Protein 1
Amino acid sequence: MTKTRKIFLSEKEMPTQWYNIQADMPNKMMPPLHPGTRQPLGPDDLAPLFPMELIKQEMATDTWIDIPEEVLDVYTLYRPSPLIRAYNFEKLLDTPAKIYYKNEGVSPAGSHKPNTAIAQAYYNKKEGVKYITTETGAGQWGSALSFAGSIFDIDIKVFMVKVSYEQKPYRKFMINTWGGDVVPSPSELTESGRQILAANPDSPGSLGIAISEAVEMAAKDPNTKYSLGSVLNHVLMHQTIIGLESLKQFEKTDDFPDVVIGPFGGGSNFAGISFPFIRENLVNGKNIRCVAVEPHSCPKLTKGQFQYDFGDTVGHTPLIAMFTLGHNFVPAQIHAGGLRYHGAGAIVSQLLKDKLIEAAAVEQLETFDAGVKFARTEGIIPAPETCHAIAQVVKEAEMAKKEGKSKTILFNFSGHGHFDLASYDKYLTGQLTNFSVSEEEIKKSLDEIASLR
Amino acid sequence: MTKTRKIFLSEKEMPTQWYNIQADMPNKMMPPLHPGTRQPLGPDDLAPLFPMELIKQEMATDTWIDIPEEVLDVYTLYRPSPLIRAYNFEKLLDTPAKIYYKNEGVSPAGSHKPNTAIAQAYYNKKEGVKYITTETGAGQWGSALSFAGSIFDIDIKVFMVKVSYEQKPYRKFMINTWGGDVVPSPSELTESGRQILAANPDSPGSLGIAISEAVEMAAKDPNTKYSLGSVLNHVLMHQTIIGLESLKQFEKTDDFPDVVIGPFGGGSNFAGISFPFIRENLVNGKNIRCVAVEPHSCPKLTKGQFQYDFGDTVGHTPLIAMFTLGHNFVPAQIHAGGLRYHGAGAIVSQLLKDKLIEAAAVEQLETFDAGVKFARTEGIIPAPETCHAIAQVVKEAEMAKKEGKSKTILFNFSGHGHFDLASYDKYLTGQLTNFSVSEEEIKKSLDEIASLR
């Protein structure tokens, strides 16, 4: 065998610091505002929800933050993750492009989410926290935090969007297997939940509602903190281990990415793979395109507005300056549940505003088409979220073919699709469609948050 | 970090030959017999079912068989698999024993099964075969062959035990995603299926019936061959890549196994990890214990009889000299579907008869107890089959503690439990029980095959 598919790092080669892009951004983000006073948040405002070390990280200006020994140790349960050259997929696409993917599906929870779940559980544990609440949509985040809770012996309570709770029992079982507790949201356990249920007893729930419940429960109990799986600065920073490893792995090849691609929900996996490469552009004069890929039907980056908005439905979270469709926007029922969110993290939004990253939108059917092609050549079955990145890879590869130019593409294989096979079945049997969202819908939703501008 | 959890091999370090234990066995197996004539089988008898190269391997006497370049290339989609030191699990068990596991769950299909599926699909393709039939119980084997079929462009038809087909739709979807076709068995597509349905239209099916259907369909069509996922010599040999890699990986540590443990269904994963270590005993004077672990409720190794028996229900397969409970034995509805089989492969049976391996039986509840403990410390959730090995590991580790002696344990993590989480849910909510099988039941089933002795 002359070719090598998988580029491994040894555990000793694993990066020992996270990269904090806030230090290198030419324009800093606008400050998060208190939901009540609308004044810039101080650390004390966040103290009821987060341990102090994470609040410090949220506001940190250092370029590099040491990863604690204990976190590195737990990372080695599955990290470093392999960087893989997708030779078979390249051949199918008949493209001169070289395609590499970083396989974050190797974690016990099956996605990149444990990279921050482990860090967050560790810092909470260190500060004596016994309980953590969180929300989950399709279940990737809830299971990742539950896994981390089992390692650090912290009780995890997950508010799971009710419709997903009913449709995806396996994610619930997974959370339980790691000892976590799952409640369908809206629930009777919180004021927020009771309010929603009073208005609509059959509410299917939403990520925004589940966040409201989890935040409320944490805020009311001094022994309980809250944890979020995306959007926030410290969460995105924990994920940079993905891109930092990739950089080291490319040193072992003769290639270097021209394009870096990640699916985009709140920003965590995209940030994870791309921020270290954006640093190469900002600090080392490189010219790497970084492309965030969102669903056509939830187009906050390509059609949303940059302004202050809430992260949740009820309005418990701080106001964040971000690309948003409005916190009342209800995304279509696409199967990539992790991408059904109205807003984008503050850092990623600022980077997009400053044209330091690109955004692209793809249709549901082309994502599954790309996912099936990938599975039938590379073996591994991608999550519907990951299929968004792959659909964009196909476009880039076809462009390379048209231009007759080789280029190197890196994408984040954010997770496997083992719990999403029902959506593959629907695709293969012709039961899936694309979803469109009209300009009017978006305008209406944005008008509703006009007062927050 | 001073310790290393995961021992990797590079792709270039991957073994390039399979190990054929037939060459080193002190007592050779008894020959398989034709189901009609009861005379020893010749290659021509197998030609309707298998490509000639696999028939040669089935009867090979060479110690080492070259792995074709094309097979090695596909192996690198996921191989070499990591050898992992289970530090966290050791700590929980408070044992002086060192516990290592070989993670075969990293394959696209989630188990060790692709190791032979890829080889079988390759040899079939090389001899011009367009269609392959097979059977599957819980779905591990059917999905592995379907994955291999997608890589080598061969149409796969899977007869899936009807009760599993209905209970485990995700395995069906997975097979379809790779382009394979699945039919619930018994079906109307074969004489065997129609016979069973005529007698019992509501038959839930069984592995034995599904084998009968798949064999019949292949035998009747010259363009179609049949493929089996365990039991046969060539299948077990393809799996030796597991143990051969492990040997190379242990060279990179200061440890060497005193005990090697694998769950036992038909023999393929157990053989895969243990045969290269048995060679160390036979050829290099080592003294490694190799333990096959079966369910208490399907105790062919610990309570079965060594004699000729059929591999299927209807009696289409050759007669094999093996430890068996009788081909009419119906195992209890344990969740480790891959271990619900009445017989053991010929080689493994001969090795047990010659006391070159050990057998142990464990109860369903202790397997899930071990599996949950493993998941909560090591992260990864094991398949119910794999939990059988882990339950035995717990016993060995406790013995080491009692004796105050360190020893090194290696077990085969044959697959992950992502599609078995419903059984974890049942376990965690107290809905699972142990199953016993009485001496009378076993005697009755063995009496029914008295004429085959």
Protein 2
Amino acid sequence: MATYKAPVDDALFLLHEVFHLDRYGNLPGFGDATPDVVEAVLREAGKFSEEVLTPLNRLGDEEGCTRHPDGSVTTPKGFKEALKQMVEGGWIGISVPPEFGGQGLPTTLTQLVNEFLCSANLSFAMYPGLTQGAIAALLVHGSPEIKAKYLPKMVEGVWTGTMNLTESHCGTDLGLLRTKAVKQPNGSYKITGTKIFISAGEHDMSENIIHLVLARIEGAPAGIKGISLFVVPKILVKDDGSLGARNGVTCGSIEEKMGIHGNSTCVMNYDGASGWLIGEENRGLNAMFVMMNEARLGVGVQGLALSEVAYQNAATYAKERVQGRALSGAKYPNQPADPIIVHPDVRRTLLIIRAFNEAARALVMWTALRTDVSHRSGDAKERQSADDHMGLLTPVIKGVLTEQGFANAVQAQQMFGGHGYIAEHGMEQFVRDARIAMIYEGANGIQALDLVGRKLGKDGGRALMAFLNEIGDFIKEKNADASIKPFVTPLGVALGHLQQASMWFMQNAMAKPDNAGAGATDYLQMFGLVALGYMWCLIAQAALAKQTDARMKAKLITARFFMERMLPETAAQLARIKSGADAVMELPDEAF
Amino acid sequence: MATYKAPVDDALFLLHEVFHLDRYGNLPGFGDATPDVVEAVLREAGKFSEEVLTPLNRLGDEEGCTRHPDGSVTTPKGFKEALKQMVEGGWIGISVPPEFGGQGLPTTLTQLVNEFLCSANLSFAMYPGLTQGAIAALLVHGSPEIKAKYLPKMVEGVWTGTMNLTESHCGTDLGLLRTKAVKQPNGSYKITGTKIFISAGEHDMSENIIHLVLARIEGAPAGIKGISLFVVPKILVKDDGSLGARNGVTCGSIEEKMGIHGNSTCVMNYDGASGWLIGEENRGLNAMFVMMNEARLGVGVQGLALSEVAYQNAATYAKERVQGRALSGAKYPNQPADPIIVHPDVRRTLLIIRAFNEAARALVMWTALRTDVSHRSGDAKERQSADDHMGLLTPVIKGVLTEQGFANAVQAQQMFGGHGYIAEHGMEQFVRDARIAMIYEGANGIQALDLVGRKLGKDGGRALMAFLNEIGDFIKEKNADASIKPFVTPLGVALGHLQQASMWFMQNAMAKPDNAGAGATDYLQMFGLVALGYMWCLIAQAALAKQTDARMKAKLITARFFMERMLPETAAQLARIKSGADAVMELPDEAF
């Protein structure tokens, strides 16, 4: 059975010593986030994840969700009670404004808590996670009436939320969607159509389910400019807030899938269901995109979360499993064999995962703090710069953290040999569960295109310039410091590669966009390596100040490993990008 | 539902135009392998794989194997009948000497046929595959009596075989194994112990199951020098060849695992079961290792097989799924959207898989032909050189083809977006099934250590030198030829990296073996890239001769893609190898 220990100490180290949370005291809500409060929140969330959610993870995978003939869905044993505990603790709304029942604490804290929840039980964490996403959309775009009607119960957690975008013939290209909305005399709409892959679409954990649905209003323009966003409750809500009749939306079936079996992935049938417009007519995609950054950041966190729990279990196993002897002679001569942690290849594998996890956590935190600035700062320039950062880093975090998170889960499983392939140790579940994060909220190829095709050139490259300058300035500033130079020098090389690749796109992709498409994935991964490398430099800087601490010494060793073994990949990525689109585009379509 | 088309034409192209099968006519059995016979065998095997095995693949995954209270195991519907068809066609023994009922055809042909079987249905293919492995061991090490008693029925396929190595506390380190053998007055042994992860250990597809079991004879030395190999039939075989009483071996349970659900993976309990010694006492590991090369080559083929079938389905989907428009404007303006094959990133992904598959098939063939030379040549020098090649390339093929085969299955699944995550299209099954090949027959980390720790330095580096010289000579010879130069030049660069890495090990790993261990996996992968690059040059050479053929033109485009986008990774691998063991070994064990 897999185990989990929430990395609370690492999160606190990053918050206070790397990112200096106290410097954000001027933002609303940050004043309440005193070191004591932050630590209490994280320790409580860690405990809940370890003690309540972890034991339910494998059970949920085995039992899965069951749809009954009447369309109702039963979730795995224990899930309902676990959500009740979350509701009682007020966890869903820790970062929601107090006027809607939240605690107003930094979003950064929510992302950290979500990492713990997802490590412990991704299938479960998706129920409150999607609710938070729906809350975010309603907060930005809902009318005052709609906010008042739906938000308090959702923030409390007694109602959950969903996102309904995908139809069987369209996922990436939402312009093709067919679900219809017909305006009614009372101002509401009748929604008709079928949505697929709807996570948490139907279940038995909450009193109501609030669906956010993309649909096309009768007579709207074709393509993405004719799509609107609606709120469609499973059970209609009366004006006094009490529940009324059942709405015309039902779960038609649940998908049989590779993993996240504890989450009910539904085909949702809308049959003249009553819905209410969110935001403006035909501006539904814009409404969705505002919240997309945060949702994508959250999926990136899932990649990190699975990588972290997989690492913990693999490291424990490597220290316990005795098999063979160290290459340089027995290290544990009193045992019949050495634990496999003595082998360089086992350590190399574990260090790749660890070096990723610790920097990825920092990257999430860095970006989550910018989210808070973007939402809460009173300074327009600060908000703009934070928005730029989020827009630029979101596809990177989603694409890189989920891609590497999955690869890490696979390598952690590998440490178990044959024992990793059987269900007993839980490692194969981490792999199956981690796999989805590369796909949903925009498959990673789409993230790469978003970065290269939309984010790089936006506002004359302002966001990219700010990113490159921040790191460039840091390198210049630190270059004279001998203690940090071993970390900063390789970062400088990698940054140079990123600059060259960006320049190459500018020179070669205007006239021939395929040159951007062919290099997009390598560019995304390279961008991620540079960002993680920068995180390692910031971490090293904090760790160098306390080298007597064993944990800080371990940080410095891991940072060195990252610089020597992981960051140099940027050279190969640059070579691939510069090879351009010719060899990629030459083969006729039908020859594939 | 996934589909499959056996790549018979590609196999024939490689056999005749790249590897010139006719040049091997002097080897026994190759005279019978006329072009007509070879084509008939491959087309028949292809048809059987496509029509009989492919439809059973998903059904087998869903139904799995069931163990009954009496220890018997039922395999998925249709498996038994499919094996019967294989038996009727004489497929199991196509490369076995005619004296034991086989057809004596080249082993190369068996490997090609196995690729088709594994693409269509890996779970099924393991039953005859393990039987072939057991046959190989008995052929080399069995006494004439044992061969006469067991081989004909196994070659026919009415009895199947297994390998029993692993115990719960030991897999890699077989020196720790505890299964006991006690000699009986009649020369047989009583075998007692528990073996785990025994593929095809118990099932309902054959009349008898012939287990090959590693055990320690009472009083034998500790460690690997006290292990012997035994044949232990499920049902005792009388002297007249008829079946007698049930032997003391039963299936205690079957494992719940990530994939290959149609194969029954058993815990086998030996309770004083009668067994007969194979080879010499205490030399059981040597007996196993002789057949290990071929078994590992076979697992490498599994990696290729899953990559091939995953590619085929992803390519078909990419040509059918319409979503969005090409970056450079609509390519299929008559459709509501373009098929996703127009996107550079989709093509890049597919080309990575394709460029791997076609070269990997060549690499398998090149090495399988050496297997045939090693077993059948009358020239001792030729045999030695073929043995050298096999020993050197086996860990490379096992490690690289399974690692990349799995990664390719994951990327092929990615092409389907959310549809790849649900069971319906069969893509997630390919991923789950492909995952095992990285683990069994020696986890890939062990393959890397085998290559670096045992194979490189063996016989003064003779095998490595021969490999480097063959490629080096080829490059020198072709360098003046402008048409092939674009392929040969990058191979020269990669070969240089491999030479530098080999040299670095020689200079740095003698005194400090951890330097070899820390670089082993990168070296294995680099070795694989160079070998695949050489295969692409040989393929390009054959393709350049017929450039008017669309298939040959596609080969040249794919070769170019490989050279530009895949081979340059050797530079990053070299950098990692040269970074040595320091950062890997520095962290104390307990800090992980």
